[in-house]
Amino acid sequence: MKTFLKPWQLLLLILASWMNHRQQDVIEYLRAENRVLREKLGKKRILLNDDQRRRLAVKGKILGRKMLEQVATIVTPDTILRWHRELIAAKWDYSERRMKIGRPAIPAEITELLLSMARTRVGTSIVYKAHWQTLAI
Question: Is the sign of the CA dihedral 71, 39, 79, 46 positive or negative?
């Protein structure tokens, strides 16, 4: 039983190996760049906004804890995974389904009608009279 590679399989294997090597070179460059930037920053704390945290959390979850321990330099793997847990918790809290508490809002038409009545002279006297009656009680 012969298990020789066909020419196209060998070519595909060489191409895949070359692409893997190029990707490893890019990763090593990015790691070195991160180290240089981290050295320039020093001990200062990096403040990230919510969008940056979200992006790191999603990518970090895909990598997993062990790979994050090797790669993550800005924050600890625990922090990245905590951000992911909070992101998932916020997604599934069903806040959009909750009932609103309190009295329903007055429709805009009624509000406009009341305001127009209050602006007119007749409506104003009625409003003032009602106001003074409530104060007299």
Answer: negative
Angle between helices 50-63 and 77-91 (to 10 degrees): 110
Distance between first and last Cα of the chain: 107
Give domain limits for the chain. Answer: 9-43, 45-92
User: Whole-prediction pTM value?
Assistant: 0.52
Distance, in Å, from the CA atom of 119 to the CA atom of 107, rounded to the nearest integer, reads: 19
Tens-digit pLDDT profile for residues 92-126: 877 777 777 788 888 888 888 878 877 776 545 56
Number of helices and strands in the chain (H, E):
6, 0
* pLDDT at res. 7: 79
Nearest to 65 by CA among 84, 51, 49: 84
Residue at 69: amino acid letter: E
What is the sign of the dihedral through the CA atoms of 109, 95, 84 and 41?
positive
pLDDT tens for 63-93 read 889 988 888 778 889 999 999 999 988 888 7
Tokens in use for 69?
């321990």
